[in-house]
Amino acid sequence: MHTTSGSTVDEWMRALSESTGSPGGGAGAGVMLAIAASLTSMVAGYTEPRDGEEAFVEAILGRARSLRDDALGLADDDAMASAAFGSAFRLEKGPERDDAIRRASIAAADTSATLGNRAVDAVDDLAWLARHGNRALVADVVVACGALRAAVAGARTNVSYDLGSLRSTGEAFDQIERDNPELWQSVKTFDAALERIDRLTAELDPRAAPTDAA
Length: 214
Fold this sequence. Notes:
By secondary structure, the protein is mostly helical. Helix content is about 80%, strand content about 0%.
């Protein structure tokens, strides 16, 4: 399996383009989260803190650098979960297949939810930089917002899809919700985060793309 740490960008992208599903969209969401974290780190590094804000900006920088590395690890975790998910559905129909699908679906949803929650946690720092960071880097903040949005949207869709896959084992939606309340709730959490990122991007647009108003 191609990993983010063991491949060049070109090699990993080639692997993503193949019809294997591992890496797939969920792993792509992890890479998008790493891009958002990297840009957050860059903008924080260029930002001159006001008096008394030095430790705050340094903390943003530290969190962004940590998230960059963790996000790439989460991308690889998703690729492995995706491979297990696909293998479960290729089994012969029967109780063994149903059990494998159940385990693989929950594991894949857990991986995506972890990624999504890390992305949600990153919104506050990016929002602070959007309002107080180096204004010359507003375009980079907008790109970071787009990458972060892609990560959250990918996590939201994958969690929802993975939970929905449990229906192939005979489970109904109300049962799936009862059995997996935190995963079910995470979809709503990600919806709220997407709305917040969209508001932040709209707030930045007059500065980032002034020619739109011309």
